[in-house]
Design brief:
CATH class of the largest domain: Alpha Beta
Shape: elongated
Number of helices: 18
Number of strands: 13
CATH superfamily of the largest domain: Crotonobetainyl-coa:carnitine coa-transferase, domain 1
CATH architecture of the largest domain: 3-Layer(aba) Sandwich
Largest sheet: 6 strands, parallel
Distance between the termini: 17 Å
Oligomer: single chain
């Protein structure tokens, strides 16, 4: 591959669990040097999910392309500040104000390195009345408005509103942090300010930013969008339908031309000529009858066959993929969104490829190394990068995982 776009960008991560490490994984995949600072014993995330031979398979991805070192921030503060002096960016997702309590707040860090961009990810932000409340991803979904929308339609069930199945609040905050810090780096370097900035990102705002037009709708006349299940209130037919094999088919047939093709494909062309379904607005008003007709057809076929029929008619659709479907899918494989990787700690495994591709280059080499063992690069970072003296008898071969 050509030189990656973030080659030369030096990043420190004081992160745990998901948000900050997700942000820095994106940066590392794009070529940045990321030094992940873990407390003695390692990131608690190493204990999450499935494990093989005592090593978390999640961390294979979570820590990939990062230099992982152990550092006690309370006892090795001077070493941290030496790392700060050579860094471009520091990313942290400790509880709001924790850096200050450790005496390594932004004023201290900028006194050492005025050019440092500090990205701070927290539950509610670095100020405001909720600043000191604890939060995890589920709380971001709840207060940011998403969990209300993923509920079942009113009266459909007494089950609680389901979460989306991943820590989407953390991932969103990590993405926003990456955008914010790169913006600050651009301003510092390209416009000549030479000054580092503090990027304040939180889980709640990250989720709330996705609420589309709901805020001005509420301001207009007090309307509050309600859960719609698998449907979309403003488009029809767009829903998820049961198939003969117990699987589900997602269909998006809401434009007038696609709707006509969809009705022909399911053997109901007369519905395309019915005035009650002439426009998207009318179809939304008569959604239940239309969904019943489509579901009557999907129930007669396995999901894969129904999908093939609608694809032949150029109707947007897809079976609901589980991870096994994704891993085996030819499109995922062709674009290397799913990659075979050899992890020295857990053996052959699969990694997601990069979401960002530049100039059509194939991303074969994006996984330079997998998430290493705790402290795998401590010696390399402290003695080779920082030039600190080695303890007597210390081995020279430090970069064992890279």
């Amino acid at each position: 591959m050509s030189t990656p776009p973030l080659n030369g960008l030096k990043v420190l991560e004081i992160g745990h669990y998901i948000a900050a490490p997700f942000c820095t994984r994106i940066l590392a995949d794009l070529g940045a040097e990321v030094i992940k600072i873990e407390p003695p014993g390692g990131d608690p995330f190493r204990g999450w999910g499935a494990a093989k031979d005592g090593h978390s398979v999640w961390f294979s991805i979570h820590g990939r392309n990062k230099l992982c070192i152990e550092l006690d921030l309370k006892r090795q503060r001077d070493t941290l500040l030496q790392l700060v002096a050579r860094a471009d960016v520091l990313v942290e997702n400790l509880r709001a104000g924790q850096l200050e309590r450790l005496n390594i707040g932004p004023e201290v860090l900028h006194a050492v390195n005025p050019r440092l961009v500090i990205a701070r990810i927290s539950g509610y932000g670095q100020d405001g009345p909720y600043r000191d409340k604890p939060a995890f991803g589920a709380i971001g979904e709840a207060i940011g408005g998403l969990r209300h929308l993923t509920a079942h339609p009113g009266g459909a069930t007494e089950l609680p509103p389901p979460r989306c199945g991943i820590s989407i609040s953390d991932d969103l905050a990590g993405l926003y942090a990456a955008i914010g810090l790169l913006s600050a780096v651009w301003q510092r370097d390209a416009t000549g300010t030479g000054r580092g900035r503090i990027v304040d990102v939180n889980l709640v705002d990250s989720v709330f930013s996705l609420m589309e037009g709901m805020l001005p709708e509420y301001a207009m006349d007090g309307r509050i969008r309600q859960p719609a299940g698998a449907a979309i209130a403003t488009a029809s037919p767009t829903n998820t339908y049961p198939c003969a094999d117990g699987r589900w088919l997602c269909v998006a047939g809401n434009s007038d031309l696609i709707f006509r093709r969809l009705m022909a494909a399911i053997g109901r062309p007369e519905l395309a000529d019915n005035p009650a379904y002439a426009t998207n607005g009318l179809r939304c008003q008569n959604r239940d009858a239309l969904d019943t007709a489509i579901a009557a057809w999907t129930r007669t076929l396995p999901a894969k066959d129904a999908e093939a029929t609608l694809e032949a008619a150029e109707v947007p659709c897809s079976r609901l993929f589980d991870i096994a479907d994704c891993a085996a899918d030819p499109h995922f494989r062709a674009r290397q969104a799913v990659q075979d990787v050899d992890d020295p700690l857990i053996g052959p495994t699969l990694h997601p490829g990069p979401t960002i591709r530049l100039d059509g280059e194939r991303p074969e080499d994006v996984v330079r190394w997998t998430g290493p063992a705790v402290g795998a690069h401590t010696g390399y970072v402290l003695h080779t990068l920082l030039g600190l003296p080695r303890p007597k008898g210390d081995a020279q071969g430090d970069l064992t995982s890279a």
